[in-house]
Amino acid sequence: xxxxxxxxxxxPQALLDRLTSLxxxxxxxxxxxxxxxxxxxxxxxxDYHKTVDQLxxxxxxxxxxxxxx
Length: 69
Fold this sequence. Notes:
The chain has a domain at 28-58. Helix content is 61%, strand content 0%. It is built from two helices and no strands. Keywords: DNA-binding.
């Protein structure tokens, strides 16, 4: 089992209402939905920064040029 720690966050009421509604609709707890959302956020932004870092390190990037007609 994964070790968990408590976390507190202030969210707009409308966002909490959406989360609660989706949790009920999917048969999951709000906590499960939050953990999934945070995980997906981290995955997305880690991939983004990894890609940007890779692009910045490439010395021989290929450039496409438009020929003058």
